[in-house]
Write a structure and sequence with these properties.
About 40% of the residues lie in helices and about 15% in strands. With about 325 residues, it is an alpha+beta fold. A hairpin with a 3-residue loop joins strand 8 and strand 9 (about 285-295). Residues about 265-320 have low confidence and may be disordered.
């Protein structure tokens, strides 16, 4: 199953387009350039102050980014655009040609390295309510796991104000990275785009699915991060990291978040529950983990909805598997 088979994409990016990025850059103290050229359009944004504007790119290849990004930063210098706690960078990355398993690899790789990305974005972004990290909102990873497991509607239940917003998967065929500030330098934005490129396009080339990503991380953090980003990007990212990358990832419990992205598993805390329909690891004291559902396409069991532990039925969750 490919993403384009479940997406409502309206043709802005064609199937087979490969690596494409839509960039949204918010600025304050802004005015329109005399000429926008081929890559950008400008919209007003009510969340910004002091004549705030949002520059929205067309879907860009990496080659087109080489033209579009310097153009924006030239306007920023010439016209005196300002950054603030309100301004940000949002990036959509095309996943129309990913399989659902490859999308799982993207989500799991993202979940693991998300704390490293926030090191680059800074504490103001980590604490910003408009781009909440998955490691602080576990339910977003749970939603993603249910979506990967065969519940298309779950994409629409994801929260817009997540650091990585997955609802655009069904709307546009993209995933949206929302956590970055408006970088004051062109070089920092280019590093950010390369990090996103690695997560969305390198990860599924290296690992078949979410479980393969987790297995690779289990073999060693340094090897995993270097395989994903490459030595040059790792060096760039390490400039921002306060502490070792392994400690940063472990302190956020990112591996646990990634486990939510394995569609046959559901990790949660529970007491006194067991069922012959599942294989359960753990115990009632420490909480059950790695609850594997028997049978491909089985409905995702969510015990929080049923105190009696009977199977929960609802039209939303009983929809057809992809």
């Amino acid at each position: 199953m490919f993403v384009h088979e479940i997406s409502d994409n309206h043709g802005e990016v064609a199937r087979g387009a490969g690596e494409r990025f839509g960039i949204e850059l918010e600025v304050e103290n802004a005015r329109y350039p005399d000429e926008l050229g081929a890559h950008w359009r400008v919209v007003e944004d009510g969340s910004l102050r002091n004549s705030g504007l949002e520059f929205v790119s067309n879907p860009l290849s990496m080659g087109q980014i080489d033209e579009a990004v310097p153009q924006f930063y030239q306007w920023m210098r010439d016209l005196g655009y300002a950054t603030s706690i309100r301004t940000s960078t949002h990036v959509h990355a095309n996943v129309l040609d990913h399989t659902m398993e490859e999308l799982g690899a993207v989500f799991a790789a993202y979940a693991i390295v998300e704390p490293l990305l926030f090191q680059m974005c800074g504490s103001q972004r980590e604490e910003n309510i408009y781009c909440v990290p998955w490691y602080r909102a576990h339910e977003q990873a749970e939603v993603a796991g249910r979506a990967l497991g065969g519940r298309r509607s779950q994409f629409r239940y994801s929260c817009k104000y997540s650091s990585m917003y997955i609802e655009p998967v069904v709307r546009f065929g993209t995933v949206e990275f929302r956590q970055a500030p408006l970088f004051e330098s062109e070089g920092a934005l280019r590093v950010w785009l390369e990090l996103i490129r690695a997560i969305v396009y390198t990860a599924p080339r290296l690992w078949n699915d979410a479980q393969a990503v987790i297995n690779a991380y289990d073999e060693g953090c340094s090897q995993f991060v270097e395989s994903l980003f490459g030595p040059t990007l790792v060096d760039e990212l390490s400039i921002y990291c306060r502490g070792s990358m392994e400690d940063i990832i472990d302190n956020a419990d990112s591996l646990t978040i990634a486990e939510y992205l394995v569609p046959s598993l559901c990790t949660y805390k529970a007491t006194g529950w067991v069922s012959p329909m599942v294989h359960v690891e753990g115990d009632a004291v420490r909480g059950y983990r790695n609850v594997a559902f028997r049978g491909m396409g089985s409905p995702m069991y969510m015990p929080e909805y049923d105190e009696d532990h009977d199977e929960y039925h609802d039209e939303e969750y009983d929809e057809e598997i992809y």
